[in-house]
Amino acid sequence: MTQQAGPGIPAGPARPLSERRPLGDRTFQVIALAAGLMVLVILVLIAFSTTQQALPWFKAEGWGIFGKTWNPATQQFGALSFIYGTAVTSAIALIMAVPVSVGIALLLTEVVPYRRARPIVYVIDLLAVVPSVVWGLWGILVFVPWIAKIYAHIASGVAGIPVLDDLFGSPTSGASFFTAGIILAFMITPIVTSLSREVIATVPAIDKEGAYALGATRLEMIQGAVWPHSKGGIVGAVLLGLGRAMGETIAAALVIGSSATITSHLFAPGDSMPAVIANQFPEASGTFRAALIGLGVLLFVFTIIINVIARTIVGRAAEQGSA
Amino acid sequence: MEQPEQESVTSLQQPQTAAPPRAQPAPEPEAYSEPGSTVFDAEKVSCYYGSFRAVTDVSLSIYENEITAFIGPSGCGKTTVLRTLNRMNDLVASARVEGDVRYRGASLYGKDVSPIAVRRRIGMVFQKPNPFPKSIYDNVAYGPRINGEHNRKKLDEIVERSLRQAALWDEVKNRLKASGLGLSGGQAQRLCIARTLAVEPDVILMDEPCSALDPIATSAIEDLMRDIKSRYTIVIVTHNMQQATRVSDRTAFFSVLRNEESDTRTGVLVEYGRTEQIFHDPSDSRTEAYVTGQVG
Amino acid sequence: MVTTTGEQLNLREAKGWRRTKNRIATVLMVVAFVLVVIPLVFVLITVVARGIKIISWQFLTAQIPPSVAPADVGGIGPAIVGTFQIVGLATVMAVPLGILGAIYLNEYGGRGPLARLIGFMADVMTGVPSIVMGLFIFSIWVLRFQFSGFAGALALGCLMLPVVIRSTDEMLKLVPNPLREGSYALGATKARVTMTVVLPAAVGGIVSGALLAIARAAGETAPLLFTILTVTAVNRNPFSGPNTSIPSQIFVNATSPYPGAQDRAWGAALTLIVIAFVLMLAARFITARFTRYSR
Questions:
Q1: Within 10 Å of residue C53's Cβ, how many Cβ atoms?
Q2: What are residue B102's DSSP bridge partners?
C-alpha cells in the first residue's frame, strides 16, 4: 500500500512502504567489508610474494639455510649466526626491559594517584615516539664509544673467572650484541609497559580491596591480588615486546657490529636477521638476495607466530579479568 | 500526515454518564469518542530474542489521534512491543517477531517492507534524551536533511516550526548554533521530540520519555503531548501510572506470566481498554492489583 | 597490625620486614622509571644540542651535498620534500582504508567470526616488522615497477593500516549506542547513521589516532631501504624514480666518517623529532578538545 509523503517530507514521488534497500547503503557495506578484508589479503600476499622471492635460497641450501657459514663470496648462506644474534639481542633486551616495564606499569596503576600519573605517561609516550633511526644515530655516535670503555673495564675485571669471562671478556669497539640489546630494551619498553598497564587494569578492584582490607601492604597486595590475575596477560605483553625486539632493524643495524659470528662473548660484535638484511641488501643479487629475502621470510614467520600467541594470551587474560 | 476522513470526534463534549460502581472521582472530563481509524493492528504478536520469548500473543489496536499508554511491571515486554511498531527490534541481531503487525492495513513485517520507510513514518523518542553532538539547529534539521531537503529557507522553517511545537523555540531561538549537548534534561528531551516532529511522522512512539526528568520537565512534556495529539498518534510506555491517567486515552496493561514447570517467563497483554476503565473498573484481577498499587 | 583485645591498640604500619619490603618495592618501581627517563632525556638533549647548531632555513631547504662536504654546506631539502610526499601518499591510502575497515568491524561485523578474525589479524599485523613490509613491497611492486616514492608509500601504508584500524575501532566503540538509535529512529540507513552521526562524533579520536600513525610512519627507515633506493637529488614525482626521506638520510649519514655528514645527520634527527613531537602534541590537543559524545 502506498503512503503519501507528508507535508514535512519534500514533495516528490511518494515513497512506498516497501522498497528495496538503497543501493548506496549496500555499496557502503561492501566497501567497508572490502577494506576489512585488505588486512587478510595483505598478510597472505606478504607470505606468498616473499616466499616466492626466497625460493632460490631454499632450493640452493635446503636445510642448509640453518647453516653456520654465511659467505656471499662463496655463495654459502647459512643463517644460523643471524638467528643466534636475533635471539641473543632479544633476550638481553627482554631481561632488561621486562622488569623495568612491569615496574613502571605497577607504578602507574598502583602507586601514583591517577591525576599525577599524566607526566609519567607522557614520558612513556615520548619514549615510544623516538624513531628507531634516531636511537641508532645516538647509539653509534655517542653510546658506542662511551660504553666501549665500560666494556673494557668489566672485561678486565672478570678476566679469568670461568663463566663470566666467556660472557663478558674480549670486548672490542663497543658495537656488540650487548649494546644492541640495551638499545632494543629502550625501544620495547613503551609497548610492554602500556600492555602491562592494560592487563593490570583488568584486575577486579574487589580483589585488590580485599587484600588491603586484610591489612596487606601494597607489595603484598600486588603479590596476592594483582600478580595471579595478570601474570598471563603480562606474559603476552612480554611476547609482544619480544616480537618487536626481533624485528627492530635500523637501531640494531647501526650498533650491533655487523659481524656474522656465533660466540658467547656478549661484548663482541655480532649480527641479527633484520640488521644483515638492511646492511647487505643494496649489493645483493641472485641467490644472495634470495637469501636475504629468505631471512625476511623467517622473520615474518617467527613474529607472526609470536604475535598470534601473544594476542591470544592477552585477549584471554582480558576476558577473564572482566568476567 | 494524512488528515483522516473519519468523523473522529476530538472536541470536548459532555462527560460520559456511565459512572463506575465505586464512588471514585472521575478523571478530568473527557468525551467518550468513537475510535478513529485504526493505525496499528497487532495480531497474536510474539517477540523472541534468540530462543527467549519476551512477549507472547499480544493482540491490540491503536487508534488514530489517541494517546495509548503501555503500563506494567518491569520485564513485562512493553518496550519490546513498542519497538516492534517501528521495527527498531530489527537492530538486535537475535530478535524475531511472530504474528502480524499491520500499519494502516499494510503488514509492517512483509517481505519487501523497508524498515527505513517504516521509521520515517513512525518516529520514536527514547527514555534517556539522546541529542546528537551537533548544534541544536542541525539536530532538528537532521531528519529533513536525510530525507533530501537541503533548501536553507525551508529547513529554517521546519526547524522553527518543530521547535515551536515542542515548546522549545523561545528558549533556544537565539542559540540555534549551540551544541545540543549543552541543554538540560527536559530541554534535551524536547529537542529530541522536535527532532522527531521535524519529519512530520504519522505516529510518535515514546519509551518512558519522562523517566529521566524532573517533575517540572515531565509536566512540560505531558502538555506537549496533549497539544500535538490532534495531529499525531502517540503510543507511550510508562511506569508512572499517574502519568498514564493524566495523558492517555487508552491503556494497555502488560504483565509477566510465569511458567512454573519450564521456569520461563514471558510478557503478556492482560487487559486493554479506555484509561478510565482500566484504572477504575479493571476486568482482570491482575490489572486491579497493579493499578491499586498492591504489586509493583 | 591491629592487635587483639587486652593489649594496647596498635594501628601503626606493618612492622619491620614487611614494611621494609614494601618500601624497597616502591623504590624499585621508581628506579625503573628513572632508568627509563635518563637515557631518554640524554638522547633528546644530545639530539637538540648537536642538531640545533646546524638547523637553519638554508639547512632545511638546500640540496643534499656529498658526504665529504662540511657542515655548513647544503642541507636536507630533498629529504624533507621526500618525507612529505611519501608519508602524505601513505596517509591518503591507509587512513580512509583503515577507517572503513574499522567501520566494518564495529558497525557491520559485530561478533561474527569474520570480524573477529579480521580484528585479531589486524592486531597481529601491527607486530609485523617494518623491514618485512619493505621486502614485501619490493617483491610485489618494485621488481615490476622500479623504485619510487610511491613504492615507499605502499610499504608505509601497510604499516599504518592496522594501527589506524585498531585506533579507529576503539573510537567507534566509544560512541554511545543511543546516538545510533536516535538516527535509526528517524529513518536513516546504516550507511547514513555511520556517516552522519557515528563518524562525526568520533572524528576527534580518529584524527588523533591517525596523527600518531603518521608520526610512526614518518620515522620509519627500514621499509624505505627496499622501495625508494635512497638518493640525494630531489624528486618531485613520487610515482617514478628513486626518492629520499629524512630517516633515510640519517641512516646514510650515520655510518659516514665525515663530520659534516654526521652533523647533517644530527640536524635531520632534530627535524624528525620535532615533526614527531608536533604530531604527538596535535593528537593530544585534538583528543582533549574534540571528544565529547553525550550529556
A1: 14
A2: B41, B107
Give the span between the Cα atoms of A76 and A71, in whole angstroms. Answer: 5
pLDDT at A18: 63
- DSSP code, position C15: P
DSSP annotation of C236 = S
Handedness of CA A308, A312, A318, A319 (dihedral sign): positive
User: Which residue's entry shows cell 635512497?
Assistant: C230
Mean pLDDT by 10 residues, chain C (295 residues): 54 73 87 90 93 86 81 83 92 96 92 92 94 94 87 94 95 93 93 94 93 93 88 78 88 87 91 93 88 67
Q: Please identify which residue in the block is written with the cell numbers 601514583.
A: A112
Helices vs strands, H then E, count in chain A: 13, 2
Is ipTM > 0.90 here? no
Q: Which of C2, C29, C161 would you mutate first to test chain A, the one with the most A CBs within 10 A? A: C29
End-to-end CA distance of chain B: 38
pTM equals: 0.86
Picking from B113, B158, B200, the nearest residue to A17 by CB comes out as B113
Residues of C numbered 258-287 whose beta carbons fall under 8 angstroms of chain A's beta carbons: which are they?
262, 265-266, 269, 272-273, 276-277, 280
Whether C121 contacts chain A with CB within 8 A = yes
Exposed, middle or buried: residue C139 (CB in 10 Å: 0-12, 13-18, 19+)? buried
Amino acid at C154: L
Take residue C275 and report the three cell numbers written for it: 615533526
Q: Which of A119, A149, A106, A128 is nearest to A191 (CA)?
A: A128
C183: which chain B residues are within 8 Å (Cβ-Cβ)? 132, 142
What is residue B202's three-state secondary structure?
coil
